[in-house]
Amino acid sequence: MKQRLLFLFFGLLCAQLTAQYKFEGQLAEEVIGNTVYLSIVEDFRKLTRVYPEQIFKKTRTDSLGYFVFEGNNISDKNGIYRIHIDECPEGENNTDHYFSKCQNSRSVLFIANNRDSIFFERTFANEMFCDLRSTNPKSDAFLQIDAEKENMIFDFSEFRSEANRKLNTKKWFRRLQQFGSSFNEPLAELYTYDFLSDRRNETYAYYLNDVANNPYYQELASKLNTYYPNTPLAKLYAREIAIDEQLRAAPSTSRFSWIWLLGALLAFSLLMNFWLWQRTTKRNANNGLLTQQERKIVALIKENKTNKEIAKALFISVSTVKTHINNLYKKLGVTDRDEIKQNF
Predict the structure, then answer these.
(1) Contact by Cβ (8 Å): 317, 325
(2) Are 28 and 127 in contact (CB under 8 A)?
(3) Structural Rg of the chain based on CA atoms
(4) Contact at 8 Å (CB) between 339 and 333?
(5) 69/105 same-domain check
(6) 6 and 116 inside one domain
(7) Which of 264, 280, 296 finishes a domain?
(8) Residue 272 domain-assigned?
(9) For residues 277 and 334, what is the distance between their CA atoms, to the nearest angstrom?
(10) Is the pTM for the entire model greater than 0.70?
(11) Which value, to the nearest 10 degrees, does the dihedral of the CA atoms of residues 41, 46, 48, 49 take?
């Protein structure tokens, strides 16, 4: 063990000197030999599962379950990365592992940069991705936040009452917000923000009330612009905050006016559809009253034939054709040939 720690120390020191990252670890025995994937997450709304476009490296474990990713092709600034494994076979049905659908999928989110060396150690209970050692003190921020969220879930489940839900929502909302801020890392705060503002969570309603009045959100936007300017993460957060602040700040009368407007448009649409349906029904009914000769004339009109050409085709006079066409206009409720072409 001492030799391994000494080796790890020198490995971490060399990584710092050469500005190369090295992410390594040991998997559980039952998944030895499986493929391990490395992803970068640039959209904080895609933290909860794996997406194909996030993956940029893959490798396999050795016979003891060890894997390693190394290189110098990631940013020198902190970013959000993911390592995940599964037991899905590669080949034409390999899309399942992208979405963590396999029974034994495991993944870990962490913070890292191009100078970091991180080791993901297998625990004595044969568990994976529960702990890490890193040259970057902020790498395990997400793991610590997840542990805090588990405490929150226990609080909510202890008493399933409305009173308990309201009290715990307020308490844990502030607690998670402050816990994320304690890392002095905007990416950690973004991780808690993603959870607290998720529409599927109990905290969403409280978040909407908070976003319009709490300067915390603008302060986080300022931090992201300072630490990570012009990044997709900072831009997405700024857009979301702007929209949510407007949504919450909009007066109720304004929302009601939109509801009335949408209702009026819906009613108008229904009336127009009813009118068009009646008109079509009438035309179709009249269409059934046409004589055989009139049907032939309709067919020739749709072929863009002139009155003279229709008369020649049907062996009748031009004046007779005109009479038939006038009768057609009355029966079909149209005023010209174009309407006949469009509707019949």
Answers:
(1) no
(2) yes
(3) 34
(4) no
(5) yes
(6) yes
(7) 280
(8) yes
(9) 16
(10) no
(11) -80
What pLDDT does residue 311 have? 85
Gap between the Cα atoms of 191 and 182, Å rounded: 13
Assign 336 to helix, strand or coil. coil
Question: What are 77's two structure tokens?
Answer: 């600034």
Same domain for 188 and 132: no
Q: Report the alpha-carbon distance of residue 272 to residue 276 in Å, rounded.
A: 6
Strands (E), the chain: 21-26, 35-41, 55-60, 66-71, 79-85, 106-112, 117-120, 132-134
Q: Give the residue carrying structure tokens 């940069």.
A: 113
Q: Does one domain contain both 158 and 229?
A: yes
The tokens describing 271, both together, are 């009336």
Structure tokens at 38: 């490395």
309-340 pLDDT, tens digit per residue, is 888 888 888 888 888 888 877 777 778 888 77
Bridge partners (DSSP) listed for residue 59? 36
Read off the CATH number of the domain in which 304 is found: 1.10.10.10
CB-count exposure of residue 19 (10 Å: 0-12, 13-18, 19+)? exposed
Domain with residue 133: its CATH number is: 2.60.40.10
Residues 189, 316 share a domain: no
Supply the range of the domain harboring residue 271: 252-280
**Rounded CA gap, 43 and 79, in Å?**
11
Rounded-to-integer distance, Cα 329 and Cα 339, Å: 9
Residues 180, 186: Cα–Cα separation, whole Å: 8
- What's the total number of domains in the chain? 4
Low-confidence stretches of the chain (pLDDT < 50) are: 1-2, 4-5, 7, 15-16, 92-93, 97-102, 252-254
Looking at the structure, tell me whether residues 173 and 265 fall in a common domain.
no
